[in-house]
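Lay summary. Proteins are chains of building blocks that fold into shapes, and those shapes determine what they do. In this project we predict the shape from the chain. Here is one chain we studied, written as its sequence of building blocks.
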Amino acid sequence: MGIDTSRDFIIETSVTRLTSNSKGSIAFVFGRQNSTNEFDLFLSKDGSYLFRKLENDTSNKLIPWTESDALSTQTHQANKLKIVKSNNLLRIYINDQYVNEAPYSKFFGDYIGFSVYNKQEISIDYLNVTYPSSSFNTPPEVVIVEPIVERGFKIVKTKKILVRGKATDKDGIYEITVNGVDASVKEDGTFIANVPLKIGSNDLIVKATDLKQASSTKTFTIKRKSPDVIVDDVVVDDVVVDNNDNITNGKGFGEYYALLIGVSDYGDGAITDLGGLPTKDAKDLGNVLINKYSFKRENVIILNNSPKANDIIKEFSKLKKKVTDKDNVLVFYAGHGVYDEVSQVGHWLPSDADMEYELNLISNSQVVDFLKTIRSKHTLLISDACFSGSIFKTRSFEKSPKSIQKKFELTSRKAITSGTLKTVPNKSMFLKYLLNRLDGNTKQYLSARQLFDRIEEPVMNNSPNTPQYGTIHGIGDEGGDFIFVKKQ
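And here is the predicted shape, written in a compact code that computers can read:
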């Protein structure tokens, strides 16, 4: 279907799911040249959408997975989709509601269609391409100048944040609000608002409306952290150590076991070797755990000599046999990973991984199953490779007991991941700060949550990744946390 992309245009369609028992996504495909060069608007069964540009088989997420109330999730209910090119923007409407926008870039070809995943059936009610008349009312274009927000969010320690930007529209700006409160707007469309923040995550929605009542929004997240409290030049952590705790000097914590996996070299020529860095990372982490914390040398297994899938599986099996319900287990993986955006499943790649036939891959679900069979008191997984967010019960801040005793008494199954959905870079900022914070820690007790808080911001500020901390869902977490006990 030919589209004159030199003009503004409107692509409209309506798609209906006919299969009720499938959780797979569907995608509206346009600007397609072939299977490796196209634009896709994915719709998930859980009410989220994603817009990507696939160029030479490399995926660029123009809009990441985003939840929207506009999207119908019911079988046999249509979703009306509209893609509007307006100058240098592509605006997306779902069921007549404006939801988001992305910069316009040249289409690869003229093909338009749909992709369906996981054995589904869909029906298409119509597919139209039109060109807006001069009377067509496009919503305002909004540009946020301050704060500078990377990857959709920013971390601050202030009670309020200043939001500045500019909205433009040929019909003139009627109003601009930030979270429903009027911003101060000048004649040229520049605006300013001072927005109060609660402790934790704050979703800020900037909404601009023109005189004809067409609206557009920009949404981003500000995470407010409480400032550190300093008493006699000592930073007070959020963990309270009860003088009556019976775990002083590490007594009562049980044994500490670690399985540290670093894969640098691969037999499959299609997988790039990683220059020995994951191998070194696993060794360096082992040295810190043994020398600084309550990990006995004989309880730390380091697999960093090109471990194969069976080598990794065997070590999980050994842990299952020797770990008791009083012990603590740390599992670490660094190496390549792959992530399927459609199924939202990640895999670790052992040294004998075969990508052509997808052999010897270790999936997220396998790792979770391995951890489920280990009867530890506390388990902490640290992964510097793609790992599906679906293992987490939540990605938001989780309240946990402040007392070390309470954290220890409650069983925990936690994970810290680098947040990357691509193969691991040769130099990992995640590992750099993880090792630095563990090695430089001066506290006797350090919870996994505290460790994460100490690496989250520097990793975000120095890499494209967003680390994640959370509970591994469905394997026995009761709200406790893994405790690193420093040697005296």
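What the prediction tells us: Confidence is low (pLDDT under 50) at residues 229-250, 393-401.
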